[in-house]
Write a structure and sequence with these properties.
Length: about 350
Amino acid sequence: MSSLNSLTQLLQESGVKFGFFDMGRHITELPSIEFAQIEQGNCIYPSPYLHQAWLALMLWNPENSEQNIVWFLKFPLDEQGYLVQAVRDDFINRLMLNINQILESADISEAEDALKDNPFSFTPDQEKMAVFHAITAKQTKAEPSQFYQPCLQYYSAQTPLQHWQELGLQGIAELAINIADHQDIIINHFDQYPDEPLIALCNSLEHSEISEQLSTKIIDKLTLSLAADQPNIALCTALARAVYASPNESFRQQAVLLLLNSKLAHSSEVLSTIAIKLPAQLLTPDTSHLFLEKLAVSEAGQQGFSRILADLMFSENLRQAILTAFRNPKRSDQLTKAIGSMFGSAF
């Protein structure tokens, strides 16, 4: 094998089929051509989370797409958002030590241990793992899991809606990723679902694509839920996450403003959800200012204020929007104090 200087080249020469997915804020496919540019340092990582690139690398047998393995990897980014080249090289060297498992094995699943004890690996939570498997199963045209049909029957109201405890998370994820086939059914029964199965569905819908009609249904439910005497925070944040999948930017903006103008606006869970799942909405000056004002006096405290902003400001666009909001002459004394505690009073 010739000298290799990139993970993409290594995979291409191994003869396996492969694909990359971003696993940070949302699960989205990352084209191999784009990843090749990222790893060569020609462009920054498009969606950093906690100053790292969170990736899933899927390998499958060209003769049998159902025979596959997945490596979940996280790579640190430098202060500008570029992949740290030394880390990438270290990973390639570790992989090279075991690459014969891929090149010489007829069964690609035997390559699963090639990254054993690898410091760059991580394990997604159960929710993300279920959604990832649903996405890749759809791409490879694999059969749905045994949990899919019971979930479809439940959300179609063919089984009593109070009997949700036995639903499988994998089936809910598959229903969400294939929502285009069932959108009318979900819309028709949306207001009838108990909170718990609705939360699970919405958290998976975040990674799918929903219609304007379903987006409207979700916004209406969010408005009603926030008006309750004691709003269910988990439900409200799940509804906001689901709106991320809307085709219309106005729905996402509306969801964020509903949260920031509600009695839950000082909740650290609500503010973290906005920062992690809907950060693009903070590019709007009025919204970023309102967000910062709520964050400055939130239950997250000064530590939460600093941590959330440190993550957001890692993105160049968001950094400029937040710095502009910092300099807003109408900012409150509380926000001024929080900024001073984070950066120093001379900021």
